[in-house]
Amino acid sequence: MKVMTATEASRSFAAVLDEAEHGETIVVTRGGKQIAVIGPAPTAPGRMVKAFLARSRETLDPDFATDVAAAREAIDDQMRDTWPDA
Question: Could you tell me if residue 12 is inside a domain?
């Protein structure tokens, strides 16, 4: 885990994001106190949602499937790329 001041993080924000993208967690401090943690985004949320829905199919609200279908129709192609395994 890397620690840097808010000033350092702001001056090299692109590099901070590059490090997070490659698995590094960065703690940002101001005045010696931790104010933020920047790290890699969680992976596979689509897979987890699909597994939950498969397990919960019998107990879900009957209109839920209709709502999910409507939401899927509303999502543009760019958003679909963020959850490629969904």
Answer: yes
pLDDT, one tens digit for every residue, the chain (86 residues): 899 999 999 999 999 999 999 999 999 999 999 999 999 987 767 778 788 878 877 777 778 778 877 887 787 655 666 655 54
Q: Are residues 6 and 30 in the same domain?
A: yes
User: Is residue 70 domain-shared with residue 55, that is, in the same domain?
Assistant: yes
Long-range (24+ apart) CB contacts under 8 A made by 40-44 are 44/85
17 DSSP assignment: H
**Phi, psi torsion values for 33, nearest 5 degrees:** -110, 140
Tell me how many domains the chain contains. 2
Question: Would you give the DSSP letter of residue 61?
Answer: -
Q: Which helix (H) or strand (E) holds 27?
A: strand 26-30
For residue 14, the enclosing domain spans 2-38
